Amino acid sequence: MKTIVINKIETIFDAIFIFNKIIYVYDEDIIIDFSDAEFIRNHFISIIGMGLEIVRKRGVDVEIKKPNNNKVLNSMKRINFLSFFCDENNKDDIYKTMVKYTNIPLENNSLILQEFYLYFITQFMGKVENLSPKLQKRILQKIFELFSNVFRHSYSALGLFCSGQFYPNQDKFNFTIVDNGVTIKKNVNKYLSKEFTKSRSSLDKLLGKKFEPMDAIDCIKWALKDTNSTTGAGGLGLSLLMDLIKVSKGSIEIISGNGYYGIKDAREYTKALEKSFEGTIISIELNTHSGTYYFLKEEKND
């Protein structure tokens, strides 16, 4: 029996480190030991949950040792995570600070997805109050496009995973979307290779000019442009969200394949990862501080 101890999950890289430990378990059962956990950022719990579902599909039994810390235990009960993997009842999210741990299947998901959208709206409204009604509506539309992109682009065997949390003392609303489908790099390079072949001139063919694939980071940047799409249905659709994140000092982190792309404090960060993540993670933090009010440019003269 393999035991994986989790004492904290504070960053996306903490979650990825644990995820990689989980998915390399093949021929033995697994204990996830949260007993000494002192801090878990629940918006990253979707990454851990997907790892556990991957090994369960292989026939691996998963046992959870619950946190001894009551604050951490109650938080994980309110986000509905523990009940998926052990005999623990969920706890009412009285203050509606959670985006509950959710797994939406790839097929036959329309009703489940619609219910989740309505639920997400109730958790979002009243938390992100520093946006005009029009901007709030547009931001929610962009968020829902991220969910639908998983079903349009990823071919994720396990569908979509999501979790999130509102941190009122920090004025932050965080949520993370993750899938185990085709990476952005594979999707983008497959599409660009086909386009290259279609548009290649006779001289290019004569000279034997070949398509040069982009690395994972450049593929993520390509997909972030709303005008770029591998399906004709739009890119990741993040431009408006990214504009808001930059001006409001929020953050976004995207991991796909071996590429990491992030924006924090209006600065762009990229990193090539040592281990490839077979799927895509998008983690967003919205600054909910009411000291500054944001609206669309078109509303300026309203």
The shape is: globular
Strand order of the largest sheet: 6-7-8-10-9
CATH domain fold name of the largest domain? Heat Shock Protein 90
Based on secondary structure, the structural category is alpha/beta
Radius of gyration: 20 Å
Count all strands and give the number: 10
Order of helices and strands: EEHEEHEHEHHEEHHHHEE
Q: What is the CATH class of the largest domain?
A: Alpha Beta
Q: Give average pLDDT, whole number.
A: 91
Into which percent range does the helicity of residues fall?
25-40%
Straight-line N-to-C gap: 64 Å
Short description:
By secondary structure, the chain is an alpha/beta fold. The chain is built from nine helices and ten strands. It has helices at 12-23, 45-57, 70-78, 110-124, 133-154, 184-199, 202-207, 216-224, 239-248; strands spanning 2-5, 8-9, 30-33, 39-40, 62-65, 98-104, 160-167, 172-179, 251-264, 267-287.
How does this model look, in words?
InterPro entries: HATPase_C_sf (IPR036890). This protein is α/β, with parallel strands linked by helices. The protein has 2 domains: 1-92, Transcription Regulator spoIIAA, CATH 3.30.750; 94-302, Histidine kinase-like ATPase, C-terminal domain (Heat Shock Protein 90, 2-Layer Sandwich). 37% of the residues lie in helices and 25% in strands. It contains 9 helices and 10 strands. It has helices at residues 12-23, 45-57, 70-78, 110-124, 133-154, 184-199, 202-207, 216-224, 239-248, and strands spanning 2-5, 8-9, 30-33, 39-40, 62-65, 98-104, 160-167, 172-179, 251-264, 267-287. The strands form 3 sheets. It has a 5-stranded antiparallel β-sheet, with helices on both faces. A 3-stranded parallel β-sheet has the order 1-3-5. A two-stranded parallel sheet has the order 2-4.
